[in-house]
Every structure is written in C-alpha cells, then in structure tokens.
Amino acid sequence: MTWMRRFLLLIVLASVVAVGVPGCAPAPPPAPSTLTYRAAEDPPTLDPFRAGDDNSLVYIHLINDGLVEYVPGTVDVRPAVAESWTLSPDGLTYTFRLRRGVRFHNGREVTAQDVVYSLRRALTPGTHSSKATFLAMLKGAADFSAGRATDLPGVASPDPATIVCTLEYPYGSFLTILAGEAGSIVPHEVYDDPSQAYLKHPVGCGPYRFESWEPKVSLALSRFPDHWTKAPAGGIERILFRMIFDSTTALEEYKTGGVDFTQEIPPGQRQEVARSLPKDLHSGTRLSIFYVGFNHRASLFKDHPLLRRALLHAIDTEFIVRVLDEGKDTVASGVIPPGLLGHRPGGAPAYDPDLAARLLAEAGFPKGRGLPELTYVTNDTTGFRQIAERIQSDWARIGVKTALQMSDFAAFMKALEAFKTDTAAVYRFTWFADWPDPDSFVTAQFGTGGVGNYGLYSSAALDQLLDQGRREPDPAQRDALYRKADTMLMEDAALIPLYWYGQDVLLKPRFTGLKLSPLGVFGIPWEEVTAAP
After folding, report:
1. Confidence bin at 31 (pLDDT 50/70/90)
2. Could you tell me the end-to-end alpha-carbon distance of the chain, in angstroms, rounded to an integer?
3. What class has domain 208-284+503-531?
4. What ranges do the domains of the chain cover?
5. Between 3.40.50.720, 3.10.105.10, 3.30.70.20, 3.90.226.10, what CATH number should domain 288-500 receive?
C-alpha cells in the first residue's frame, strides 16, 4: 500500500470515528425512573410525631429515618442512622453509636443532639404528639409529657456520636418503637419554626426528600442522593402520589397505565383481578384487626353484658370474610393477631342466631322489645357500607333495629368523640399495629385512657394485667399475660372481632424487589425496589 493510500485510509477511519459507527454510539443516560402511586387522599399531617394513619405514614417513613429500621418484609430490627447499639444486662440502658456522614435533606450532618431533640419533641406537650404513649417507658417520660418536668433523663448524648436511652423498666419491643415514626430524627432548625412550615415542606434524613404538593391532586418525593445507604442502580428515583379517592377509578387508572401501584382492590373484584393480573398482584398478611366496638359509656351497653354477647353471636362473620371480602382476610378470634405474643389461635366466636336470641331475651329485650334503636357509626366506603348493611340485616333477624350513620373519614372520627356521652352507639373500627407488640393492640384500645380507646372501655382488672405484661421481661410470661388479657376481653364481650386483615397490592411487573411489610404499605422500602426501563 502506497503512502498516499495509507493517508487516505486514515482520513476515512478518522471520519468514521468522528461521526460514530451506527449502533455503537454511547446511549443517552436513562430518564429518572418514576413510580406513580395511587393515594386515596391528601395526608392529614406530615409531622412524624402527630401522624397515626396509613396515608400520612407512607410519606413519613420515606422522608424520615431513625436510629434503627425494620428489615424489609419483617418486623426484625437492623441498624440505620445508628451503626450499632448495646444493651445493659438489666435491660434498661441502650447505648447507640451514630453512623458518620448521615445528612438531613437540608445538607446538615445529623448529630446525637438531633436524636435527643427529636425524642424530646415526640414527648413535648406542645407538639400535640400521638407518640407520647409509645415512649412512655423512657425514664422521666410520664412527668415530661405531662408538663410536670422539663428534664427527660431517659435520653442523653454524652458526645456528638453517642445516644443513651434509659428505661423505667425493661421493654422488649423498645427497638421496634424506634424503628417506627416515633423514632424519626428531625432537624431542630426546621421543626422549631413557629409558623410550622414543615407541615408543607418536611425535612428528614430518609431515602426520599419532599419535592412538591398540590393538594387533592398529587404529592411528589424524589430520591435523596446523599442518603447514607446510597441509591442502588436501577432504583426508583421519584415517587409521584396521585390522589384518587375511589378505588374503582384507581383500578381503571392502573389498568390503563395511569398509576403503577395501588393498594386497594374494589369490593367484589378480587377474584377477577387475581385471574386477569396474576403477575401484578402481591398478597400478604397484616398485623391488624377490624371489629365492632361499643360505646361503653352508654348505660345500655355498660349495664347489659348479655346484650353485647347477643349482638356478637348474631353476626355471620364467616359470610363477611368469605363473600364480602372474597377470602382476603382471616376471621378473628380475639384482639391480638397472629404473629404477636398473646395471640390465641382458633376459637372464633360462633355465629348462632338462636343463642343470640336467647341472650337478648335474658338481657331483658325479648325479640328486641324495649330495646332502643342502635346507631352504627362508620365512614362511607363501598366495603364498609356493605359490611354495615350485612350487620344491620343480621341484627334485624333477632329483632334489633339499627340506623346506619355513614360519613367521610373526618366526620367519622368526630363522631367517635361523641361517645363520651350516653349514646346507644356501636362503631366499626380498624386498628393496625403501631409497633409489633400486643401492647400496641390491647393497651392502646382497651386500657383505661388508651389512645385508641374510643369506646371508653375500662376495667381495673384488665389494666393491672396489662401493666404486668408491659413490664414483664420474660417473653413466655408476657405471652401468657396477654393471652389472659385477650381472653378477659372476649369473655366480657368488650368488642365484636370480625377479622384480621390481609393485604393486596397491585404493582406493574417492571418494578421488581417488592417486599410487603406485616405493618402495612407504609413499611414498603421503595428505595430497595428496582425499575426496568
């Protein structure tokens, strides 16, 4: 080859390299992966210490981190903002060592003093926190949360990387409380704002940071690039929550691609969805209970335990679970669900209308004569309405008349406050575990003054038993104590348990790595889910 030919060939090759060989050019960077998530409505609050509903907790658990967190898909605990911890032999003192380099979304590094500030804020009366009872085992918490003391000796930071939590008594589930929203770590410079701007623009140190919120339309979170875990390749970079109240509309949006995730299948469509979308449907159990509660302040219920038992045996719970809920849930035998200490397997109250009629007569109301009309209070969704109408029908068979009082959720919660008066009312209620412990169910809902005790049930014998259970360090002994408490509630017909929830969600198959949490959808670690293009 002559020098001229070599020269011309080099020019041609250089031109090819400059222009690029078809199919070999560097691919453009992929667009950020977005998960479009159906939310039923706006969150009532984005303050981690005020939130108690699923809708708020979904955002709060993504925006905030604590010293520890749940292992995905379980209720086991692993390190998070704390890289390690130790527990004293007497079970009273937890010492945490902070992970280095953890940052808030505003860029500031997290220190031990931020943890102290956050736990104090969760217990400060002016915060109007719903978490004070969660942390009641901390030394000095009772006086501090009641405003009787300004010192909280149960929380201290001897140096910028160490936090010491001291308890009044050993509490085996303390770490699981810190893994939830009560353990959220927030920056004081944001949450001391008297204008409470943090309610519209929260700041935490979690895997996602707040981006925008258009009320009644959407709320968006984006991946926090400086999160201590560092984002995995292919992870979800942005979550767009679309507010779609109606579950049927949400399902249609899912089918047509308007949303990638929905946590509610409309009543009567579960079997069809399982048949038509088998790769999208993910099912699991949840630590929860759905029940009918009594207004125990009302003399009608307080003075007539036989009436309560008559109403219990008159409800065909199997029909509600098998037909109305299409088998998603499990008939409940008591308050404490499977998977927790104190759970009593089997022995669900029998549906027996003949027994119910006899008990009603023994209570002094044969065939319902002399019994005032009961008011059944519920929020108005299709599923809750169907259950209310079925219970109304079941009670009518033994002569009990019931008026259904249905409203939106906000009005429903206000109606529960009216139970402080002598009102012959019953109510549907759902309770999900705040942390995986029987204390979260029995003490919260049926202990005197419990945060979820809307029916105002009170029993000195039960309170004493629950106090023993809370302070007992031995798991086997705790199990026995809470089983006894659950049995006591059922023997007194303090409530009518209907079912323990299952959970169904739909997720587009291009998203992989989903792990449902026994605590509910707010426990899903979306930062560990990957998305195909």
Report:
1. low
2. 49
3. alpha beta
4. 65-189, 208-284+503-531, 288-500
5. 3.10.105.10
CA proximity to 40, closest of 259, 320, 334, 291: 259
Tens digit of each residue's pLDDT (9 = 90 or more) over 84-138: 999 999 999 999 999 999 999 999 999 999 999 999 999 999 898 989 999 999 9
With H, G, I as helix, E, B as strand and everything else as coil, classify residue 21: coil
Residue 3: pLDDT band (50, 70, 90) is very low
Both tokens of residue 529?
């889910």
Extract the tokens encoding 368. Answer: 């319902």
By CB atoms closer than 10 A (0-12, 13-18, 19+), residue 165 is: buried
Homologous superfamily in CATH for domain 65-189:
Dipeptide-binding Protein; Domain 1 (3.90.76.10)
Q: Describe the crossing of helices 460-471 and 475-491 by its angle, rounded to 10 degrees.
A: 160
Buried b (16+ CB within 10 A) or exposed e, 34-71: ebbbbbbebbebbbbbbbeebbbbbbbbbbbbbbbbbe
3 state SS of 466: helix
